[in-house]
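[audit] Reproducing an earlier prediction to check determinism. Same input, same settings, fresh worker. If the tokens differ from the archived copy the diff job will pick it up downstream; this log only records the rerun itself.
[audit] input (666 residues):
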Amino acid sequence: MAEDKKVEKKKAAVTKLDKAKKAYDPKEATICEATRQMLEKSQRDGVETAYDRAFDMKACPIGADSACCKHCSMGPCRLNAKDPYGKVGVCGATIDTFQARNFARMVAAGAAAHTDHGMSMLDVFREVVKGEIKDYKIKDPVKLESVAQSIGIETEDRTVGEIAMDLYEELERTYTQVEGEIPFMKRVPEKTLETWRKLGIVPRGSMREIMEMMHRTHMGVDQHYENIARQFSRTALSDGWGGSMVATEISDILFGTPTPVQADVNMGCLKEDMVNIIVHGHEPNLFETMLVSVNDPALVESAKEAGAKGINLCGMCCSGAEMLSRHGIPHAGNFMSTEPILITGAVDAMAVDVQCIKQGLASVAKCYGSYLFTTNPRCHIEGAEHIEFVEHDPKACTDEVVVKAIARFKNRTAKVEIPNIKNAGIHGFSHEYIEYMLGGTFRASYWPLNDNIINGRIRGIAGVVGCTNPRVKHDWVHVEMVKELIKNDVLVLQTGCSQISLAKAGLLTPDAAYMAGDGLAEVCETVGMPPVLGLGSCVDNSRILIAASAVVKAGGLGESIADLPAAGAAPEWMSEKAISIGQYFVASGVYTIFGVTFPVTDQTKFKNLLFQGMEDQGLGKWDFAVDPYEMAHKMIAHIDKKRSALGIDKARERVLMSMDDRRTLE
């Protein structure tokens, strides 16, 4: 018992700030006013968050440069990033082998996260089709047919059930196949696929690619950075065109394909007089069932009996972005706001599943008497209560979360302080809706987009995605970079935590077109769309890949994704998933720039391969910058380079044609 008390005291010491330490300035930590307000409250309350830890704990410079190796017990070995070829590891491994192995393992871990998510969705889909899961059904049979047709499955004169089972069996190959090409390779532009085949990087099956990647990076196996890079490209492609794409497509089939919806983001979505429940994570099943539970008449009545006006459901992080896009459920904040929102004292329960869940949430929740529930067998957190979510009886979990949240509301002890800030935006721009929006019901097509890129009204396209990171000013890099892009007529596609950063800044409304250049503004006003299109969660980056393929197919902008005047960015990335995402965009042919830091050593052959060599092979390439304006202009320079290569670098002159001229047209 005495030992237990010592442990509890140590835990409390970790949670409570040391008053003698120098504190960071919340105004310098974030541009999100709601998050800033809660960080100031955390300092008054003496509660520690990730912002405190980032301020107090400096990043390891050797690790940041990827100049260390800990893959065997002869090490860990450290090399000097300032003299990268001055020495080698105990086994003789060079700095290039160090970096390639480390980068490859980040790709493998990130790809595994998305692939496991996709396989979970496919498992649910199979059980729904077989009739074993009753709580979910196929909500979008049109999407089911279109996905099936895209990979060669016959749909004419067949039932939904027959098509669905064939689709399940075909998509299962995405994971389990050991030879051949995964199903969604049928969606890849032919010239892009030809390049992959030539380089030997077409993915066979996600499980095989991830397994082989881990084997190759074991001590004493693959020791040539170029060969390792081929396999991590293959592994990343098995994520973007495999696991992630399966997750998005199956989620749409089961829960509905998003169409534009207006919804609010930020902490003002909380309501002091209601039971507040937050769902945070990445898998939509939990959130979809929670939506049913919070609207259950018996549970709503129970909340009213406890003194609440009702039950208020909000999302955070990526499952929140999915529900924001699909159902218009309010979104309370991105990754770096998940601890600050507990500091409001208004959160009665936060239910989490997988990915981007800070362990620090448990101690912050405890400080304010809020419940933190883990729900997925893959993610337990010491100090959090676990309520298992099982798809065959999903309401058993979500109903219990609601019941306990109601009890917490009735017995709230924490002082409630909710920032009075909400930001409206338009979300839910799926690939299908963008195609319809541009071409209409009968002529759905990307050609109007291509035409406006060719004529110069739109300079190019940027995919801006990714996390938020306490090593830089929260949200600021995202917002400033995107403002610079749209000012220069670059249309922005947005996913994940980045989407919420931009929504808080008011950039996801049609009115934001006034911040865009004249050409992009004209297109936005004509179509009635924002200059920044929110596509959903980070796994929904696959929507960008599908859109890029559709742009190539529409014609006029080259024959492969690498030909497009397009660029990608993750300005505040922090996870291994981001590295996998970045690599599958680079391997697909997209120039991709990251911020904060990048895990390479300067003046090395491996860095040269990532930053130039891959482009020489017909793929895309990596780049890095910290300043948002520099990032934006590097992207614009690349877009201009591609416009020049396509011969569309000068705007087409508008000519008023006479009838005689028209008669000569074929």
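[audit] rerun output stored. Observation attached for the diff report: The first helix runs from residue 2 to 15.
[audit] end
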